[in-house]
Amino acid sequence: MSLPAASRLLRTTLRTRLMPAANLTYKPAKHNISAGEQAIALTAMFVTILGPSGWILAHLEDYKTKK
Prior knowledge:
- This protein is mainly α.
- It is built from three helices and no strands.
- The protein has a domain at 35-67.
- The protein is flat.
C-alpha cells in the first residue's frame, strides 16, 4: 500500500526539518586511556549494573516470604 505523492512529500519535508543533519567529525582521541584504566572502568560499570541485580536474584526467595 503506497501513500499518495503529496503525503510522502509532506512526510519527507517534516522529517528533514525536525531532524537536521548532525555535524560529525572524526578526530583522534584527545586523551589516550591505558588498558588498566579501561579495565577499572569496565569493572566499575559491571559492578554498578550487575551487583544490585545479582543481589535481588540471590535473595528472591527472601522477598517472596511475608514476615
